[in-house]
Each structure stands twice: as C-alpha cells, then as structure tokens.
Amino acid sequence: MTLTAKQERFVQEYLKDGNATRAAKDAGYSHKTAYSVGAENLRKPQIAAALAKAKAERTERTQVTMDYVIGRLVIEAERDDEKSSHSARIAALTQLRQHLEGVGDPDAAAPLSINISTVEAVREVRVTRSKA
C-alpha cells in the first residue's frame, strides 16, 4: 500500500527529531488534531514500515548507528579532563537515561512515578487495619 503525500511528508518530518506531533503539524495536518494524528500515524503499518526503511537507509548512508551514538555519549559522560564540562556530562547522561527509559519509543513503558504523602500512608494503614 502506498502512502499519501501527507503521510510521506509525515515520515520525512518525523525523521528529523522523532516528534510525532510536530511531524503531523509540519506535514499539513490540523494543529488541533496533530497530537492524536501523529500517534495514530505511528501505529499504521504502512507508515511504520516507511519509517523503518528510511531509518535503515539513513544508517547505511551515514554509517551512524545507535550503538555508535550511545558509545559516544558514554565517552562524553565519563570524560573528566580539561576539555570536558559539567554541563556536557549532564547532557550526555540525560540522553543516555532517556534512551534507557525508551523516551520517544511509543511501545516502551512509561517510567512509573509514585508520590505518597505521610498522611495518605497513615490513612491507608488505618483502613487496612480496620478491615482485619
């Protein structure tokens, strides 16, 4: 199945920075629906296939793989000489963390964040004890 002109543009725009909402807007979709259209487009098999093909072609053309990028980020994060900077190390570590958490990957699980105040914890303990 071939892609529409908008879908082809979406693929090209998505390859720039991996932002589906921005890609949808830049491809000509409505700004009001860009968030949902972007996510929907990523789930469409023909668009996913076009993205995979374009990424593979880019990797072949540039010879820059994810392993290479991660390796360079690790080098920068661990660098501790006169040419290094604290902000560069933090930026590299942040990007590595994002990679490990699957940021930008729609199939990756979102990091779990749980915030419980002391009052809520005590209330929960009381409820649990009263049921026993």
UniProtKB/TrEMBL annotation:
Q: Which InterPro entries match?
A: SPP1-like_terminase (IPR052404), Terminase_Gp1_N_sf (IPR038713), Terminase_ssu (IPR005335)
Q: Name one GO biological process term.
A: chromosome organization
Claim: rRNA processing is one of the keywords in the record: no
Record key words, sorted: Viral genome packaging, Viral release from host cell
Keyword Transmembrane, does the record have it?
no
Instruction: Spell out the protein name for this chain.
Output: Uncharacterized protein
